[in-house]
Amino acid sequence: MKVKDKEFSIFIDRAKILERVAALAKEINQDYEGKTPLFVAVLNGSFMFASDLMKGIEISAEISFIKLNSYNRTHSTGKVKELIGLDENIFGRHLIIIEDIVDTGLTIKHMLEELRELGPKSVEIATLLHKKEATKEPLSLRYVGFEIPKKFVIGYGLDYDGHARNLNDIYSLAN
Ligand code: IMP
Questions:
Q1: Residue numbers of the domain that contains 61
Q2: Residue 107 CA: which ligand 1 atom is closest?
Q3: Is residue 49 part of a domain?
Q4: Using 50, 70 and 90 to split pLDDT, how confident is the model at 75?
Q5: Residue 171 and residue 66: Cα distance in Å, rounded?
Q6: What's the CA-to-centroid distance between 33 and ligand 1, angstroms?
Q7: Sheet arrangement for strand 94-102
Q8: 155 in contact with ligand 1, CB cutoff 6 A
Q9: Which end of the chain is less crowded, N or C, counting CB atoms within 10 A of the terminal residue's CB?
């Protein structure tokens, strides 16, 4: 499939994604029973994952959305922008950050530093995808949907230059 100037091929289909996301929700339900966690979804990329994950959450919980984006076309720029949009008081709360993908890990590292200053009781990360080989930062990722190779992927919320977020499946750049 062509998106703008690049060719992509199917990588993880919708059924497989949904099955895995439901399994993660189940794990979270068990781990956070009685804790009322605050999910913090990182826009834009995590909107589909956050939506499907929350559909499987059966314990009492809240969700909020923030923005923090360091990505420029197909390469991570290493630059991080400010965290915007967190209105909730997170002091003493159990946070679960919802991310689309952890690549170098810089984005999540920066966000963790900012959030920890606000005094949450705990912070864990739920990421749909993890490019393990690309991650330079020492991070503990509690909930990971799929470990993937260092490939550029799109769809299910992930974009190429603003395009392809609407696709139901995940595609990777064809070599
Ligand atoms: P990191 O700071 O290098 O971990 O990059 C994380 C952010 O870069 C993600 O939240 C995405 O927005 C973006 N990103 C990383 N890899 C990809 C990819 O393969 N496709 C689309 N966006 C990506």
A1: 14-146
A2: 2
A3: yes
A4: low
A5: 25
A6: 31
A7: 62-67, 38-43, 94-102, 122-130, 143-147
A8: no
A9: C
> Please, which pLDDT band fits residue 8 given cuts at 50, 70 and 90?
very high
Residue nearest to atom 3 of ligand 1 (CA): 104
Looking at residue 53, which CATH number applies to its domain? 3.40.50.2020
Of the candidates 97, 110, 103, which has an alpha carbon nearest to the alpha carbon of residue 43? 97
> Vertex 12, ends 9 and 18: CA angle to 5°?
145
Kindly state whether residue 152 falls inside one of the protein's structural domains: no
Q: pLDDT tens across 37-56, in order?
A: 999 999 999 999 999 999 99
Catalytic residue among 13, 31, 52, 103, which? 103
0.90 cut: is pTM over it?
yes
**CA gap 137, 134 in Å, rounded:** 9
Structure tokens of 6? 């690049």
